[in-house]
Amino acid sequence: GGVEVLKGLGVLPPAMAALGAYRCIECNEEATELYRDYQRGVLRISICKSCQKPVDKYIEYDPVIILINAVLCKAQAYRHILFNTKINIHGKLCIFCLLCEAYLRWLQLQDSSQNTDPDDLIRYAKEWDFYRMFGIASLEQTSFFIGIFITLWWMTPEMLKRKSDFILLLKALLLSTYGKLLLIPAVIWEHDYTPLCLAFIKVFVLISNSQAIRVTLNLNRILPWFAIFFGLILENGVVFLFQKMGWDV
């Protein structure tokens, strides 16, 4: 029936939702339910009391359509994913994105190396290089997030009063880095325009991060970019530190 379909999409039934656990995807107001079940597969989407529009029209949409809307960075799609669905892939997605970035850096490092000796010691060194790139990518992303949190806490302390606010924003940032998954196809289908593709991927990830911050904290468009700017400054500071230490990053 309709309830089973919604469960398959990760949408929690009203009985499982806490008071005000949902958000209207149009106006961001809290809602107590997304739909009402009249039994026998008859469902009626709830109407927002504030804007008089459906609380979440995406509960009837195919996941592919939702993904396309998320790729287009529509605020409504982000609110649906962050507030009205139960998604627990933040950690796994983060690790996989970091692996993609580490692999890209490792591959570029091997391309710059002229040593083709198949000796076991050389192979071990190359394997260690990959782990080192993963660690560096992890530290850079952590620095980027810390810069964002510090900036937002400094400029809007009332927005991040509770631990749950920090956790929600962290999950939103981790989910919004999904664009890094495009790094692997960009490397596999290597072309003269690969550096340009990598630059576009970087910009897309930053736009996604900005939209995630804006939707999570219900901010204007300017403040998230300030936070991202300071996050990039801290991240580049870490890169500069590694370079001063003589590490290839």
Could you characterize the architecture of this molecule?
It is found in: Endoplasmic reticulum membrane. It is a single chain. The protein is mainly alpha-helical and 249 residues long. It has two domains: 1-84, no CATH class; 89-245, no CATH class. It has helices at residues 2-8, 63-71, 75-83, 90-112, 120-155, 163-175, 183-188, 194-217, 222-244, and strands at residues 22-23, 30-31, 35-37, 43-45. The chain has a two-stranded antiparallel sheet with strand order 1-2. Strands 3-4 form a two-stranded antiparallel ribbon. The longest helix is centred in the middle third of the chain and has 36 residues, at 120-155. The radius of gyration is 21 Å and the shape is globular. Residues 1-9 and 13-19 have low confidence and may be disordered.
In summary, what is this structure?
Belongs to the ARV1 family. With 249 residues, the protein is mainly alpha-helical.
Structure keywords:
249 residues, mainly alpha, two-stranded antiparallel ribbon, 4 strands
**Shape, principal axes of CA atoms:** globular
Instruction: Specify the structural class.
Output: mainly alpha
Let me know the average pLDDT.
82
Task: Report the β-strand fraction as a percent range.
Answer: under 5%
> What proportion of the residues is helical, as a percent range?
55-70%
Count the domains.
Answer: 2
* Count of helical stretches: 9
Main β-sheet description: 2 strands, antiparallel
Ends apart, CA distance between termini: 52 Å
Total strand count, please?
4
Order of helices and strands: HEEEEHHHHHHHH
Q: Radius of gyration, rounded?
A: 21 Å
**Largest sheet: spatial strand order:** 1-2
Low-pLDDT segments: 1-9, 13-19
Function: Mediator of sterol homeostasis involved in sterol uptake, trafficking and distribution into membranes.
Family: Belongs to the ARV1 family.
Subcellular location: Endoplasmic reticulum membrane
Protein name: Protein ARV
